[in-house]
Design goal:
alpha/beta; eight-stranded mixed sheet
């Protein structure tokens, strides 16, 4: 079986959206998709077969301060208006097709992290509901979003536990994978100031989580280098953003977001024969 692995990256995920829409246009349906952080937010519309929905949401709401603005942080500890982003948009303004999402035989796995231990939890698509809580939880990056309480657990951004969940896809039985990354080939992760602050915060009540954060960038680089090495082999295909296409994670310039979306579409179309062979072979 072949898997589809979606990294996070906030609005850099518009690259992912372009790739996913190209897959839908070509009738390429992976039987298994796993996403983390914004990879969940964008990946659900691939599983629900809603071609173009991700770009519709981005183009309609990214410039709307009611959707994203630092002013929300002072009222709700979140850079986004959470009720608007995770309830009003998917349930009213740009309806998400829950019926198709639930009825398809495709598996969809959402990665979240325990807010205290940073242990990874993997939720099947059946756990998603109209509240949008699970999607919100996987995106709940500390300092930008508050943690989310979901079925007795306090959850934060899944990228803190498993930033590129390729290993989980393999654990779930996928011998080959298409990995969509939101960084350039030259990228290597290092401890950034906000991560060091987060490590200091966790040290006061969860030393094991703090220890994990100290080495997490090494783990990220290990998986990232695997993606580089195995790209184009019979095992995995990986797609990367080029250096000159990179944007900040919360970039709100629609021309740059659209260029990134178009670039993702073009990149996977150039390799569509490889992708189809990967899906058929497994």
């Amino acid at each position: 079986m072949a898997g589809l692995v979606l990294e996070g990256g906030a609005f850099r995920g518009l690259f992912t959206c372009g790739v996913l829409d190209a897959l839908l246009d070509e009738g390429v349906h992976f039987p298994y998709t796993i996403g983390v952080s914004s990879g969940v937010s964008y990946g659900i519309s691939y599983v629900s077969r809603q071609r173009g929905r991700n770009w519709e949401v981005a183009s309609r709401f990214t410039l709307d301060d009611n959707y994203i603005s630092w002013r929300h942080f002072f009222t709700s500890r979140s850079i986004m208006n959470i009720p608007f982003a995770f309830d009003e948009i998917p349930n009213k303004l740009s309806p998400f097709d829950y019926e198709t999402f639930r009825s398809t035989t495709d598996r969809f796995v959402t990665v979240c992290a325990d807010a205290t231990s940073l242990r990874a939890y993997y939720y099947p698509k059946e756990e998603h509901d109209v509240s949008g809580k699970l999607t919100q939880a996987s995106c709940a990056l500390p300092f930008y979003f508050p943690p989310v309480y979901f079925k007795g657990r306090k959850l934060v951004d899944g990228g803190l536990a498993n930033p590129i969940p390729l290993n989980r896809s393999e654990f779930d039985g996928n011998e080959a994978n298409l990995v969509i990354l939101t960084k350039p080939r030259s990228y290597r992760h290092y401890l950034k100031p906000d991560e060091m602050a987060l490590m200091t915060y966790y040290r006061s009540f969860s030393p094991n989580a703090a220890s994990w954060l100290r080495v997490r960038h090494h783990y990220f680089n290990h998986i990232f280098e695997r993606c580089l090495k195995e790209d184009g082999s019979s095992k995995n295909i990986s797609l990367f953003i080029e250096e000159d296409r990179m944007i900040s994670r919360f970039c709100r310039k629609l021309d740059k977001l659209k260029a990134l979306y178009d670039y993702g579409y073009e990149q996977v179309m150039r390799r569509m024969d490889e992708v189809k062979d990967l899906v058929r072979a497994k």
